[in-house]
Amino acid sequence: MTKQEVSIFWFRRDLRLEDNVALYNALQSDQPVIPLFIFDTDILNSLPKNDARVGFIHESLSKINIKLNAIGSSILIKKGATTEVWGSLFQEFTISKVFFNKDYEPYAINRDLAISALAKANNTLCFSFKDQVIFEEKEITKSDGLPYTIYTPYKNKWLEKYKSIAPLVEYDTESYFSNFQKNNFDFPTLQQIGFEESNIKVQPHNLTQISNYHETRDFPAIDSTSYLSPHLRFGTVSIRKLVNWAVRKNDVFLSELIWREFFMQILFSFPKVVTHNFKSAYDGIQWRNNEEDFKRWCTGTTGYPMVDAGMRQLNATGYMHNRVRMVVASFLCKHLLINWQWGEAYFAEKLLDYDLSANVGNWQWAAGTGCDAAPYFRVFNPDIQLKKFDEKAIYIRKWIPEFDFGYGQPMIEHAFARDRAVATYKAGILK
Ligand code: FAD
């Protein structure tokens, strides 16, 4: 007997059933749709067993699976190297079409090219869609067709283009849920995938304070930002829904969502930024890269309360407020003269919202090596930042309980560090 032909919808960083472009298109296809997720061992093998992001993915998939169970369907979960998994899927099922949403990171682009080639070899059609961003790849370019490398003109073009298509279409997948295949795949526990629960958890997003975002966002003690970042990273929230909402709420908040897309298009157009300075003129900077200094930064024991509170928040929760991220990043690159790539790697290990484009983009911004970056001679004074943004030391006390009992000496004097940074950058920047 010939096997039933199916379509496969492959979940990746779009872990939701609603307003999901590739899923919507899959459900319009003629075959019953099997939803799939692959725990990719090429990524998992480099992570600790209690990585909180894997737990979050598992939890998000479990929520999706419960909804699917209610309509007689279920999600197919696989674990392995993606090409091997797909190789066996082509044996196991008669797959006529594969649907997925695009991912713009270099690893994902190569992976998807390999899977598309494999599909072709198996006479299967592959369809990919834009879902993660409003404007992708080269949709927003300068008049000469080149990518923007400065944020403000990019943002203006983005807004102009958005206005011409607003409000964005939201995809009504639910009307087509009956096209999911009726099935009953086993849903593995986190332990069966080889991971353990972490005591660090992704917080629910919170949009209740967004109307005052422009006034409160820089104050870590107020804690008024949206906590959307891990949700946008893993796609548990739809960017189209969010932008349609944000546009009516707060321009400054919308600008932050545009920064996200700005850095995504930078990564897409200049993938070298992952491992190289965007501005190659900065390649001559003689970083000190002192291991002991790095350890003090990682453990939040630099003696600068704003830096230490931020690093302790990161280590304890997988999150750090944006203002504090800017301060700790500047401190690492400029006060300690440690290559931004060390800080980027540490954040990548710890952040629940770790996203290659935003992390690299912001680290290079802080180091001064990026496009549209902070000027090299701008060296944040962590104590002035503290006075400006946490005057009553409320945030500091939360993360440094010993703060009031004679906090330690700064590991390096600010004026000395600032002068050394400026001199080192000046000497290193190629004319
Ligand atoms: P909100 O202030 O509520 O902002 C809403 C959304 O806008 C965020 O969720 C995010 O998607 C986007 N956004 C806000 N600021 C930025 C920004 N500067 N660049 C890009 N997108 C932005 N953000 C990440 O998502 N992943 C990272 O790996 C990451 N690494 C960073 C590293 C450094 C050194 C710095 C300075 C910033 C980094 N950011 C990163 C940006 C920013 O700090 C976080 O997006 C923000 O703090 C997340 O909290 P929120 O969702 O409450 O933000």
Automatic annotation (TrEMBL):
GO molecular function: deoxyribodipyrimidine photo-lyase activity; DNA binding; FAD binding
Entry cofactors: FAD; (6R)-5,10-methylene-5,6,7,8-tetrahydrofolate
Residues that, per the record, bind FAD: 213, 225-229, 253, 256-263, 353-355
UniProt xrefs under InterPro entries: Crypto/Photolyase_FAD-like_sf, Crypto/Photolyase_N_sf, Cryptochr/Photolyase_FAD-bd, Cryptochrome/DNA_photolyase_1, DNA_photolyase_1_CS_C, DNA_photolyase_N, Rossmann-like_a/b/a_fold
Record organism: Flavobacterium aquariorum
Pfam families: DNA_photolyase, FAD_binding_7
Record's protein name: Deoxyribodipyrimidine photo-lyase
Record flagged with keyword ATP-binding: no
Keywords, sorted A to Z: Chromophore, FAD, Flavoprotein, Lyase
